[in-house]
């Protein structure tokens, strides 16, 4: 495919977010009605249904998209909506989500770690850092850092990150999670918990 066609196609989605619900499916019609009440103040948006329960949320501007992303987490009927930036060449997200974006709050951070590189290095202990909220990136509030991290289902959610300062002192950076998704230890996915795993011996669907 010619590069100019791909570039033009990518522009169509440059203000979009990729989202999905974990543990429960939300009907499309209800989804728009609920989110329109929450998001309409920042501009118009459209919802596009992809495969495996994935939705693409397209906004009129970068500012509207970033406001939605930075003011989460969001939910519909109590079901968490996981959101991340749409990126060109982003691989399709399969059913049974092995990775999921989660907002984390890091506290007791040494001052010398307050750079984009330093905070990203701390967050990388948890998973792949995706982005920071504006207050964190601008160092407006340095009592804690708020970072969105793509976490894997086969990894733990630690409450503490231990890091060593240049003088050898070990500092414990505390971690809080805005939301703890259900995890299946058997399937290593966030789509359901171990207790209701369809592969659990003796578990039968009711008729």
Approximate shape: globular
Tally of strands:
10
- Any guess at the CATH architecture of the largest domain? 2-Layer Sandwich
CATH class categorisation of the largest domain: Alpha Beta
Cα separation of the termini = 49 Å
- The CATH topology of the largest domain comes to Alpha-Beta Plaits
Number of domains: 2
Element-by-element helix/strand order:
HEHEEHEEEHEHEEE
Largest sheet: 5 strands, antiparallel
Number of helices: 5
Strand content: 25-35%
Q: What's the gyration radius in Å?
A: 19 Å
In CATH terms, the superfamily of the largest domain is RRM (RNA recognition motif) domain
Query: Numbering strands along the chain, what is their spatial order in the largest sheet?
Result: 2-3-1-5-4
Helix percent reads 10-25%
| Overall average pLDDT | 84
Structural account:
It is a single chain. The protein is an alpha+beta fold and 207 residues long. It has 2 domains: 3-85, Alpha-Beta Plaits; 99-177, Alpha-Beta Plaits (2-Layer Sandwich), CATH 3.30.70. The chain is built from 5 helices and 10 strands; from the N terminus they run H-E-H-E-E-H-E-E-E-H-E-H-E-E-E. It has helices at 3-11, 28-39, 62-70, 116-123, 134-137, and strands spanning 16-21, 45-49, 54-59, 74-76, 79-85, 99-107, 128-132, 144-152, 160-164, 170-177. The protein is globular.
């Amino acid at each position: 495919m010619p590069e100019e066609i791909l570039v033009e196609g990518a522009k169509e989605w440059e203000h979009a977010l990729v989202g999905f619900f974990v543990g429960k499916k939300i009907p499309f019609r209800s989804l728009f009605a609920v989110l329109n009440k929450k998001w309409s103040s920042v501009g118009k948006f459209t919802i596009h249904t992809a495969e495996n329960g994935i939705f693409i949320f397209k906004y009129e501007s970068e500012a509207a998209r970033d406001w939605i992303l930075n003011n989460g987490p969001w939910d519909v009927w109590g079901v968490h909506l996981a959101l991340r930036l749409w990126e060109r060449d982003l691989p399709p997200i399969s059913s049974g989500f092995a990775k999921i974006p989660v907002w984390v709050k890091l506290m007791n951070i040494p001052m010398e770690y307050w750079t984009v590189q330093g905070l990203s290095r701390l967050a990388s202990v948890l998973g792949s850092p995706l982005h920071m909220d504006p207050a964190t990136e601008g160092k407006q509030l340095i009592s804690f850092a708020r970072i969105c991290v793509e976490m894997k289902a086969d990894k733990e959610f630690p409450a503490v990150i231990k890091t060593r300062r240049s003088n050898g002192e070990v500092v414990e950076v505390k971690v809080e999670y805005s939301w703890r998704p259900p995890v299946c230890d058997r399937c290593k996915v966030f789509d359901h918990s171990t207790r209701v795993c369809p592969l659990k011996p003796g578990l039968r669907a009711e008729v």
